[in-house]
Amino acid sequence: MFKIGWLRIVNGLIYLYILAPLAVVIISSFHPGEYLIFPPQGFSWRWYEHVLMSGRYTEPFWNSVKIAVVTTCFSLPIGTLAAYALTRYDFRFKNAVQSLFLSPLVIPTLLFGIGLLIMFSALGVKMYFTRLVLAHIVLTIPYVVRTMLASFSQINRLIEEASIVLGASPARTFWLVTLPQVKSALAASAFISLVMSFDELVVALFLTGPGLNTLPIMIYSDIQFNLSPSIAAISSLVIVATLAIGALLMFIMRQRTRKSTGIEEPNP
Amino acid sequence: MSELRIAHLCKKFGNQTVVDDLNLVVHSGEMVSLLGPSGCGKTTTLRMIAGLEQPTSGSITLDGRELTTVPPHKRNVGLVFQNYALFPHLNVFDNVAFGLRRHKVPKNEIGPRVKEALKTVLLEGFEKRMPSQLSGGQQQRIALARTLVLQPRLVLFDEPLSNLDAKLRSQLRVEIRKLQQKFGFTGIFVTHDQEEAMVLSDRIAVMNRGRIAQIGTPRQIYTQPADPFVADFVGESNLLPVERVVAEEGQWKLTIAGGHLVAAPRTDKAEPPPRKVMIRPESADLVRSDAAVPAGHNSLQGTVSFIQYTGSAYTVEVDVAGLPKPFIVKIRNTSEDIGFRIGDPIRAIWPVASMYAL
To answer: Do B51 and A165 count as a contact with CB atoms less than 8 A apart?
Structure first.
């Protein structure tokens, strides 16, 4: 009994440590005054109104959304196919390829950002959106590869062989049999990729330029030059929206597995 | 109309030869079992026929058409797996319809054909169930339906009954045999269970170390094994090593290990002298050690070392001086007590004619 009680306390402290910063941000966003302080003196929706009405964050927000979505449209298929090849096939330099795909996880983003900036400048690539998306694809692929590797290694290879023997080409087998087994991992990978790209700051600081502001950059510059509770308000909105998207994804996945008993399978 | 010919088939993994110059002809409508211990190359052979492994060399033809160059999804060969391999995300209907859809069968034909297939495996009305809601036996029936609905000319079975319990196993193997006779497909059945092979097949190919040790009807394999390996692997047997041979008219006079004298029938003058002789446990009988040996019988004197009662028979092990293994005798009549205990002296006798020289 003593032991369990003790563990509970440690557990609670860990949760507190993880969640307290979020709580501080959300609570201080209701401060009515001009400067960001904690605890807030009073309660007001004023800064939410400001964030939503002023239009200051609207464009950076949509930029970040666009970058996250386009990034994921590339990193998800690339990472998934790479993970599949790494689980199913034996080829030369397999370990090297695997390390390469996972390496951005261990390279400091600061170095990565500087390197990319030098490279893009040398190549004369000035399309800020494109170069930021390219960078984010590289940054998010390891997360997709890692998640999908674990999922692919769990599915039974014989199911794929059964499909092939029944007349489905290997490509159709991948689409009709393999991918449906890893649906939840795909959703998880997409979610991680979207979130990672959406709130990435360091590389974005290096690679954006005039005319392209992302939400993290906007918040960062506000912290330096304009420390008002509006930062806390926009941050709170992002936190809530992220949680909502995560919950929605989980809900959809659960619904899907429950009613996947329709007579007709989709014929792509 | 669907004859399978395998010629000089070889498969090497690295420098290990798994299938070694295998030759086999399976006639149309015939069921042939590949029987052998694990690692003998039987499953690899099956996978090469299905196209899931590429042979190192050799050819496989079905009705004269070379299969080895055809990709597996275009071979039209049925394959039933040991672990069923149903698609877990599809219900029973979609599992059975999977192959039909891949073969571009018109939509209005799919429903009736799936229904018919489920009827033949006695699972009508299971269309909407998911594989996870079915027992092992039901899953294997669905796997059978999924394969047979395509009306393949050749169906391969990869130990399909090994994961089921004993009762279901004997029930399903009879069903598979009946389905094979009804549809008339050519079948190859891989198993390490000799009883299964006996019940299911027209012919059995006993495999050892990547080669076919013997091919023949179940009766031929059992009564006339080609070599000591087959004799030992198929059924129980007493293999007695021969030390000295004297050829006589119509029979061999043999001195076996331990210096015991036995006789064995000699059918052919050209037959080489045997190195081993075999006697099936059920051909021998046990008598009191001081009883007279009837004419035309061999006998060995020993001590009872172990008795197994299996309901329909007693299996008795007799230690005989000089023999490497106990001599095994199976007594079918279990209505009365066998009348001896472990440690009692005993005499095993058997007709000379039931002795088989290897």
So the answer is: yes
